[in-house]
Amino acid sequence: MEHLLVRHCSPTFASLKVGSLVNIRNNGENQRAIDRLVSVLPKGLSMSVLKVTERMLLIYLYNEDLLESLLENDYHRQILLSYDYPVDSTEKALLHLSLRLQRESFPHEIGLFLGYPVEDVLGFIKHKGQNYMEKGYWKVYQNVPNKLSLFEAYDDCRMRYSQLMDQGFTLQDILKHRNKE
Asked: Which value, to the nearest 10 degrees, does the dihedral of the CA atoms of residues 55, 115, 111, 77 take?
């Protein structure tokens, strides 16, 4: 489980992005692992189960301060309000996102919750996922050089955290020292 989280969530652990999604098998062992992880998450990181099916759990790991800032940003608020999100609290916004995930496979505004640049989220919505200029962690519609640099930073972070795990550090060890690098 820890390796899976490092592979998918390293940029969030390092506060490089707002949040990350992880899809895991819905079984008792994974649920216990999630409960253990939640109990050791450092201050500022939270985890929420956004969608539950018989087979899978969709986990959202997020940086509380970055998500709160996103919800306070007027432009982001305007977009989220257009999808009927309550933006006065993180919990309410995540509940609404969870409900939207129950109704449709992946609501496109989820990119905002993942820290994707707003111009790319809106580009994806407008172009229905087509006509993008580059593709990496998301489909890029503007400012390709900056996005490629960001993708590289995410890759470097993932590699660094994976190397630490390969050296025998636990996820708890890595998270304890994540902002001291």
From this structure: 120
